[in-house]
Structures are given as C-alpha cells and as structure tokens.
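In the previous lecture we treated proteins in isolation. Real proteins rarely work alone, and many bind small molecules. This record shows how such a complex is specified: first the sequence, then the SMILES for pyridoxal-5'-phosphate.
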Amino acid sequence: MTSTTAAGAADDVVYLDYAATSAIRPPEVIDAIAAYLRDVGATPGRAGHRRALDAGRIAFRCRRALAELFAIPGDPGRIAFQLNATHALNVALFGLLHPGDRVVRTAYDHNSVRRPVAALAARGVRETVLAGSVDGTLDLGEVERAVVGNAVLGRAKVLVVPHASNVLGTVLPLAEIAERAHAAGCLLVVDAAQSAGHVAIDVVRMGVDVLAFTGHKGLLGPQGTGGLWVREGVDVGPVLFGGTGSESWDAAMPSAMPDRLEAGTQNAPGIAGLLAGLEWIRERSVGSIHAAELALKARLRAKVAAIEGVRVVSPAAPEGVGIVTVDAGMDSSTVARRLDAEHGVLTRAGLHCAPEAHDCLGTAERGALRFSIGWATSEADVDRAATALAAVVGSMSAEARKAAGSAGTA
Ligand SMILES: Cc1ncc(COP(=O)(O)O)c(C=O)c1O
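The predicted 3D structure, ligand included, written as tokens:
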C-alpha cells in the first residue's frame, strides 16, 4: 500500500503492523471524524440542545453497531466506551476483584492484563497463571482445575483470557473455556483486542460475561476508542468517578450502565470514527474480512517459512487471525529496523508486551518479528515483505559469517 506521510509526500511502505494499530484508516473513518468536529462538536448526554442530541444519536448508533457485531442481546447501553482495551481491562478487573478474590489468567496475556492483575495481587487478590504451550492452546483440564481450585485456594471469581494471541495469532475456543468457568461459578472476562473486527464474536454462544475491546485495531476507529460490554446480571464497579450528565445530586456513581463506567467527557469524535469503521466492516462482513486475511496469512507464512534460517513461530493451523511471527535466529529489532530502512516494510519486533508468551516460545532473549495483516493488505504487500525478509536475513547472515571469518584469521 502506498500511503502519504504527514508532510504530504508519497511514502511507499508496506505496513504490516495492524496488530499494533490499523495505521492509516479507511477514508470513511477520516471523513466521519472531520464531519463530527466540523458539524456536531458537542458531547453526548450533557445537554438538551440539538447538537448534543445529534452527538447522542451518533454514540447510540455506535453502541448499536457494536452490539450487532458482537451479537449482544438486549440493551446496547451495557456497552461502555473506554479509551482502549487496556482501559477496559483495568476497569473490568479492578471493578470485579477485591482482596481475597482469586483470578485465573494465562501465560499468553498482554501486559494490559498481566500488570493490572499484578497490581491487584499487591492488594490481596490471589492470582493463578495457566501454563502456556508453544502452539498457543490451553489445556482445558488445567483450566477446569484452576477455576475450581482446592480446599485452600477456593474457587476463582474471574477467568480472563485473550481471545486471540497478539504474539501467535491463535484463537482460543471460548465456548469450551466458558463451560469450565461457569461450571465453577467463575466469570469469563475476554480480551478481544486482537479478535474484534477480524473474527466473528457471539458473546452468548461463546459464554462471555465481560468483553473488553479496542477501537483502533480491527474495528478501524482512531486511537482513544474502545469499550467494555458487561452482561446483564454482572456488576462491574466503577474505578473512575465523576460527571455523567445523569443523577447529578447523587455523590455515588449511577447504578445504570453505561453511565456507571463512563465518568467524564467521552472521545466523541473518536466514537464517530469508530462508528464509520463498524459500518465499513458491516458492509463487507467479518466473515469475508477474516477469509481474506487468512488467505494472505497462508501466503505470507508459506513464503517466510521457505527462507533459510527463519523459524515460523506462529503455528501452522490455518485458522486464527492474520499474524505471522518468526524467529530469524538474530536480534529481531535489528531485522525490523533493516526491513524498514532498506525495504520500507513496517513490522513489530521484540516482546509485543507479552513477555511470558516469549518465555514459552524460546524467543525471550532476542524477541520475535511479527507481521500482522489488516484491511488494506494486498498479495503484493505480503510478497514484498517476504522478499525483503529473505534479503535482510541473507545479508545479516553473510555479514555474521564474514565477521566470524575475520575474527578467526585475526
Ligand atoms: C492481546 C492484547 N490485549 C490488549 C491490548 C491493549 O490494547 P490497547 O493498546 O488498545 O490498550 C493489546 C494491544 O496490542 C493486545 O494485543
């Protein structure tokens, strides 16, 4: 994809870092944000004038589009806007867990789960971490034992899992996991940062109790958008307190969603952009977006697997999301830097904010190189990325051999 730099110059790059953020957005998203700032501008739920009502209608349509995308039954008002998945996960975990409670999480968690759980553990919440496997799967027997606990541990209150791994691109079987959690009376909190907009999500069929998602990755909104859906019957307590434009005499936060979890002025232009992203997805369907991304993933995987010295870390399983992570046997940051500088191929190296996953995969020391596919990726992009990787790995290997040779003759 040829894009344009902030300075307006043509910038011939291949952007393969969609798992970090969707980079340049569809024109409809950009237009919706500009139109909001130009024609609406007001904050939803803060006044009765026409502009505030227009703003409220956009926020409502966005909640309704999210409810449709995730097959959320009932009131779309159970979706609270948040700044990103990290914000949503912090609200979910701090709003559900109290000293003495136990939470079960996985070794594939992003730091947006690992760090809040560590902070909660310092306040007396007990933590159990499920072991990771090289193929990204979870042992369902271990899930069951962990949530049930024992006479000393007791049952877990919350099981939190990533729907899709940001390191491997694998997807967990949520329905089977939910069955184990619910049988133990444990709530399932799902981090959908990498799956929302890329794979179909049906919260009821998948047994999700609380869904945290971000708006700036697969949902194609701008940074600063995301949300938290809380199933009817579950109360996530507020962690942020302030104005909501409702029940203003009460010093406590309102009990009704979404106001309970939406203190302060929301990112209304971002919500307008997120709505446009959701409409873009609805027009194409998640099924067809997923199929296209899987075809590109298979193509990229086959090409990089054929490069001498490159080990593909992402499992060969054809499903999952459009992430292909490799270990080139050399420092991943150097490879990423050279891919960018010499070939205009933009990737993400290192630990991807999930260090325990890299511990499982044997890539903790030099990190791994992640290619991630998104809405504007083409076959030409993945072909160019694979050719570039072959060139960089080839020249770095030759340089290493030369350095070893001259060290040997010195
Ligand atoms: C699996 C996973 N969870 C959570 C997050 C955090 O998302 P955000 O940056 O929107 O807070 C990410 C971001 O990369 C992620 O990959």
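Summary for your notes: Residues 379-409 form the longest helix (31 residues). The CA atoms of residues 216 and 222 lie 5 Å apart.
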